[in-house]
Design a protein that fits this description.
Elements lengths: L1 E9 L4 E5 L6 E4 L2 H18 L13 E7 L2
Parallel strand pairs: 1-4
Antiparallel strand pairs: 1-2, 2-3
Length: about 70
């Protein structure tokens, strides 16, 4: 199983996330939970809108999201 490492950062009014090992996965939300849901949405949109040969390698197989909270 592939591990996709996601870093979550906070600003004064929202949360943002980016993957440190999987290109093209960025997300945002008003809460941490919204931000995490947005990551799943981004992955599903990549799979829906891009041909499989353009998908990042990590999402071509089973994957696990690993969350890091950056201060």
């Amino acid at each position: 199983m592939e591990k996709i490492i996601m870093n979550i950062c906070a600003s004064s009014d929202s949360f943002g996330a980016y993957s440190e090992n999987c290109e093209g996965i960025y997300a945002a939300g008003n809460t941490i939970e919204e931000c995490k849901k947005d990551v799943e949405t981004v992955i599903s949109l990549i799979k829906k809108n891009l041909p499989e040969e353009q998908w990042p390698e990590q999402i071509k197989r089973k994957y696990q999201l690993v969350w890091n909270y950056v201060i």
